[in-house]
Amino acid sequence: MTSEQIDPLEQTIINQTRELGKDHPTVLASRANLAAQVGEGGDPARAARLYEQLLPDLERVLGADSADVLLGRSNHAHWIGSAGNPARAAELNKELAADMERLLGRNHLNTLTTRANYAGWLGEAGEPARAAELYAEFVADQTAVLGKDNADVLVSRANHADMLRRAGHSDQAAAELETLAADQARVLGADRPDTLSLRANLAECLLESEQPARAVEVYEQLIPDEARVLGADHPDALVTRANYAELLGKLGRADEAIAEFGRLADEVGPTMGAAHPFTLAVRGNMGNLLAQQGRVAESLQVFEAILADIEPEFGPDDPNTVTARTSVDYLREQLRQQGPTARDL
């Protein structure tokens, strides 16, 4: 929210305070609205400060166990985390979850939400292993309350898998995502973008957990589905194809990988531009694979074209230009050492 939008609300609070008194519920509600609007308008740090100023007054007037106080504490923690302090947000949610459990019960929906927030911020604060443990407990309780096919439960399971992956347990994350992707396709639909995203995450986890053959299967099933649902030029579809080509190269299927990178480069070059970071990455990967296969002349052609495209746009000293020029110089030297007929091989 801009200062022009905030000023009238702040003036309203001043007027309300003068007419009703600073402890009137209407004034307190307006202060809460101001804090929320400030945060939603892009200033989480100020929103957190406004809630911090508001909470003592709410507790004094309404009582520490009031529903409005609990909500205010939840919002305060949210904006604290959004302002860049996830550890403090996790601590506040942990304290709030304990109070909510005491007042509402462990499996009340508001308690469950706060427990999820605690786990999420804890993971953001650099403790994914502990966050994964909390998510495992939370998902079991949430499933018991809402049912295994509830949409919120599916989201929580995805968050649990994400924390497992961050904690280095990619094999466990892959197993969870394998099951979750099937469940979400059954419950919400196979063509939902978030279902497709789960499958992409599954492929990455499979690769991280040294299951490349299964990752290839997932990619080969996912690529046509993303093209059909999202469109062949959608960023997610393009990234999936690039990841698939990279995986093929790592598995020794270089010719297939080079062909896929080549198709990608031909497709995205005219739309994104020859010097777009994604286009450059695809072309660079293709050039590197060609060189690794001993196809030095072809690799040189790729990097010469890259250099010709980016130097006029970025300048001679740009890191991309320097990298391309270094590759060109190296490949030219390789060709020189191979002899004058190397370009024709």
Give a topology summary.
Blueprint: H1 3-20, H2 25-40, H3 44-62, H4 67-82, H5 86-104, H6 109-124, H7 128-146, H8 151-166, H9 170-187, H10 193-208, H11 212-229, H12 235-250, H13 254-272, H14 277-292, H15 296-314, H16 319-338
Helix pairs in contact: 1-2, 2-3, 3-4, 4-5, 5-6, 6-7, 7-8, 8-9, 9-10, 10-11, 11-12, 12-13, 13-14, 14-15, 15-16
Record keyword descriptors for this entry:
345 residues, mainly alpha, Serine Threonine Protein Phosphatase 5, Tetratricopeptide repeat, 81% helix, 0% strand, Tetratricopeptide repeat
Task: Describe the structure in your own words.
The protein has 345 residues and is mainly α. It has a domain of 133 residues: Tetratricopeptide repeat domain (Serine Threonine Protein Phosphatase 5, Tetratricopeptide repeat, Alpha Horseshoe), CATH 1.25.40. Helix content is 81%, strand content 0%. The protein has 16 helices and no strands. It starts with a helix and ends in a 7-residue tail after the last helix. The model has no long low-confidence stretch (mean pLDDT 94).
In short:
The protein contains 16 helices and no strands. The chain has helices at 3-20, 25-40, 44-62, 67-82, 86-104, 109-124, 128-146, 151-166, 170-187, 193-208, 212-229, 235-250, 254-272, 277-292, 296-314, 319-338.
Name of the CATH homologous superfamily of the domain at 213-345: Tetratricopeptide repeat domain
> How many helices does DSSP assign?
16
What percent strand?
A: under 5%
Instruction: Quickly give the CATH architecture of the domain at 213-345.
Output: Alpha Horseshoe
- Ends: how far apart? 63 Å
How large, in whole angstroms, is the Cα Rg? Answer: 27 Å
Query: Quick one: CATH class of the domain at 213-345?
Result: Mainly Alpha
Main sheet properties = none
InterPro entries: NLR-like, TPR-like_helical_dom_sf
Protein name: Tetratricopeptide repeat
Pfam family, one: TPR_12
